[in-house]
Fold:
Amino acid sequence: MTNTISIWLGLLIVAALGVDAVVFDWAFTVYLGRKILELIEYLAFWR
Structure:
């Protein structure tokens, strides 16, 4: 990954979090966090 791609990817992530904070009141971030925790617990079961 080049520096240019990483900078654009970082800006895209920051912009997505900003839109989620302003428009959706962090609902998507909380939803995504809960789903990631469910995935981690599921994978830990198969370990």
Notes: The chain has a mean pLDDT of 95.
